[in-house]
Structures are given as C-alpha cells and as structure tokens.
Design a protein that fits this description.
Rossmann fold; Alpha-Beta Plaits; 6-stranded mixed beta sheet; 4-stranded antiparallel beta sheet; 36% helix; binds adenosine-5'-triphosphate; ATP hydrolysis activity
Length: 310
C-alpha cells in the first residue's frame, strides 16, 4: 500500500485547447494536512477535481488512496470527502434533515445514529433543528464539513472552504479539520487564499499559471523565496510608497498597518536604495519576510498579470 494519500505525476488538463493545469506532480503523505495556494485562475480547483476522480486529466497518471485516478474514480469518490467552493444544501430543510438526506445518498445503514454522531462531533446540537438557509456563513461551512465527513472518508479535498467566513469561525473550522484528521487518520488538501490558514498546514504547495511552483513548510517557503525584507516605520512613511515602487532592487512594497515592508532578492541593490531614502524620521530595520511577502514574490516571479486577466 502506498504511503501517500495522493501520488500523481504529470497531471495536465486542457479545456478546448487552453491549458489549465500542466505537469503537476504531487505526493501527499497520509495523515497530513496540506494547504493549496495560488492566485485566482491558477488551476487549484481543476487539480482538486482531477484528484477526486471527478474530472479526467488530459494527460498524467497517479493514485488517490491507492486507487487509479483514471480508472477507479468510483472507489475514490466513495472514500473521499469533497467540499466544493459553493457547497450547496437544501436551504428549506433543517441541519438534521440535510444530513439525513446526505447519509441516505451514501447508503449509510443506520442513518439516525450516524447523523446524531456527526452532529455531536461537529457541535451542531444547538442548530440541528434550524433551517440550513438561516445559518450564518460559519455554521453553513460547519454543516458542509459535517456532510462531507459523515461517511468516514480517508481523504478530504476542501476547495476554499472558509471564503467569506469570519476569523473566529475560520479558526473553529480549522480546529475541526485538525481534530478530525488526527482522530480518524484522515489526509486533507485544502485550498485557501488566507495566509493564517496556510500557516496551520503541515506543508503548502503553491500553484501559478497551472503549474506547481513551490512546495514546503511555511518556514521553507519563506527561506526559499530568497527575499530580503526591510520594514520602514515612522511619520509620513506611506509617502515613500511611490518612490519605493520605482526604486531599483525593490520587487514589492506592502503596507503593514502604519509600516511598509520593502522586499527584493538582491540585497546590495535594496540596501543601496534604502540608503538613498534614509531620513531621520524613518526607522529602517531588516525583518524576516512573512508568508505573504513570499507569496507576493512568487506570484510576481511567475508573471501573474496574465493569469488574473485570463
Ligand atoms: N470547465 C472549464 N472550461 C473551460 N475553462 C475552465 C474550466 N474550468 C476551469 N477553467 C479555466 O482553467 C483555469 C484554472 O481555473 P481553476 O478554477 O482551476 O483555478 P483556481 O486556482 O481554482 O481559481 P480560484 O482561486 O479563482 O478558484 C482558468 O483559466 C479557468 O478559466
């Protein structure tokens, strides 16, 4: 049996001659939670759909949970939980009724007790008789997670499960993911645009223009970005923005509250630029780049302008 929950090579998907995903290799060890990041349109959903057996690749091979993604998609679907970006449920049924419906779709034998156990696991007791359409965004996502985990999957593929959900509900959601993966030895691949969520993952993979361009722990991603980052604090620091954007050696500048993060990969160039801009009021100090700095750099390196307008 493979030690990987996902083990795919050379995945490619074309839609009408346009390449959406190209040459994706991914080996996700069992029991780990990985974050899947990348700009809009970079190919994350398409990749997740190929991994789930719902979309056949134009080229490439591999397995999910040991089953061939090309020929054994039914086996994969039975053992995985897939939460789509716009997970839908019946708004005029209660939470419990929704889960009962899903349990029947999965041909679960003892519907009542499995639904009750799921409701307890996900702390939905107080909401079980509420109409699903009246739940807040955070509770709707909780219901979606209940629905996709009720049949005891070994693999979770979650596509931006927390978009539009407030920070507290997002944290609760992630606590649930970690608890469930730990208790049931599940593996999860979760796409997200949130940096704090990426930091909760064992590893992250970063996709750009249909290709996986970086992979590793958050610390490795930051270290491999090769970025040098300086932080500028002081009155009027924001006025430096325009000059910094044009300055040599500065690859990106970002606001961090009242401060600026100025990053580049050529230390001598960026130090020279900062030297030229030094003034008494502004304090410059080198800081460890954060994940957002690293991802902005990756995105810019890949020339993402074309991707976003695609
Ligand atoms: N069924 C389809 N037919 C044609 N083109 C498609 C189809 N599905 C996706 N695409 C294209 O493939 C590319 C990748 O899209 P995909 O939805 O996989 O990106 P994504 O990284 O999930 O984006 P987002 O973060 O916005 O969800 C895009 O250019 C998209 O327009």
């Amino acid at each position: 049996m493979s030690e990987f929950a996902i083990d795919v090579h050379g995945l490619r998907k074309e839609f009408g001659g346009k390449i959406a995903v190209e040459n994706v290799d991914l080996q996700l060890p069992k029991g780990e939670v990985w974050g899947f990041l990348g700009p809009n349109g970079s190919g994350k959903t398409t990749t997740i759909r190929m991994l789930s057996g719902l979309l056949s690749p134009t080229a490439g091979t591999g397995t999910a949970l040991g089953y061939d993604i090309l020929t054994e998609s039914e086996e994969i679907k039975a053992r995985m939980g897939y939460m789509t970006q716009k997970f839908s449920f019946w708004t005029d049924l209660t939470v419990r009724e929704n889960l009962e419906f899903v349990a029947r779709l999965h041909l679960i034998d003892d519907v009542a007790s499995v639904v009750s156990a799921t409701i307890r696991t996900l702390d939905l007791q107080d909401r079980q008789d509420q109409l699903a359409g009246t739940l807040s965004g955070g509770w709707q996502q909780r219901l979606a997670l209940a629905a996709v985990t009720m049949h005891g999957p070994d693999l979770l593929l979650l596509d931006e499960p927390t978009s539009g959900v407030d920070p507290l509900a997002r944290r609760d959601f992630w606590d649930q993911i970690h608890r469930m993966t730990e208790e049931r030895n599940m593996t999860a691949l979760v796409s997200t645009h949130y940096m704090d969520e990426a930091e909760r993952c064992d590893q992250v993979v970063y996709m750009s223009r249909g290709r996986l361009v970086a992979k590793g722990t958050v610390a490795e991603m930051i270290a491999n970005s090769g970025l040098v980052t300086f932080r500028a604090d002081g009155p009027g620091v924001r006025k430096l923005m325009a000059a910094l954007k044009r300055a040599s050696g500065v690859e990106h500048v970002a606001y961090f509250g009242a401060a600026l993060h100025v990053s580049g990969t050529d230390r001598s160039l960026i130090e020279r630029t900062i030297g030229e801009l030094r003034s008494q009021n502004i304090e410059w100090r080198e800081v460890v780049p954060n994940l957002e700095d690293a991802f902005i750099a990756l995105t810019q390196k890949a020339g993402v302008a074309g991707e976003r307008s695609a």
